[in-house]
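// run 5 | inverse folding | seed 20
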């Protein structure tokens, strides 16, 4: 969730912003628990809330699109997943820069869908760009480091197909420590 907000941010946050953060947290929790239809529904709700918000946070919009893409990906809806994940990545780059470690990490989310759709060259390129760089951008003891290093072999062993979703350990979300 958004617990990284400073206390001063909470005092100026508007009720709509707080609701949006709550919906995003619920969507991510549903995704982690494997309740993908609920994660999809909550992500769509968050996107609608973002679009009608008076003071939207661009990172929240990116996160909502990422949650939607991951929920669709987990349901085997890879083309739809790629649309949402691409939108998320564009928004994250605008909000944080392409070099930000989380933006680079989230760039790995489409890999499973590309593989499932037979677009291995895109998948291989993303892995080749991210896997050597990301372990240097996070602390060595960060739980995400071994997951990034192990991602290529996990994809080979448990790779998705057009009709089968990727295994949950491939998720890279705001809480990058999901399921080691």
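// decoded
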């Amino acid at each position: 969730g958004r617990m990284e907000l400073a206390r001063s941010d909470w005092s100026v946050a508007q009720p709509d912003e707080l609701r949006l953060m709550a919906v995003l947290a619920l969507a991510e929790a549903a995704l982690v628990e494997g309740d993908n239809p609920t994660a999809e529904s909550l992500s769509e709700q968050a996107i609608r809330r973002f679009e009608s918000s008076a003071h939207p946070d661009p990172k929240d919009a990116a996160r909502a699109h990422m949650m939607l893409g991951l929920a669709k990906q987990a349901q085997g809806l890879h083309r739809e997943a790629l649309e949402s994940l691409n939108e998320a990545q564009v928004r994250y780059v605008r909000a944080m820069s392409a070099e930000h470690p989380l933006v680079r990490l989230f760039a790995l989310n489409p890999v499973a869908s590309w593989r499932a759709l037979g677009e291995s060259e895109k998948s291989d390129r993303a892995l080749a760009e991210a896997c050597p760089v990301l372990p240097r951008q996070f602390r060595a003891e960060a739980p995400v480091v071994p997951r990034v290093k192990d991602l290529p072999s996990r994809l080979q062993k448990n790779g998705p197909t057009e009709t089968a979703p990727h295994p949950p350990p491939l998720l890279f979300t705001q809480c990058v420590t999901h399921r080691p």
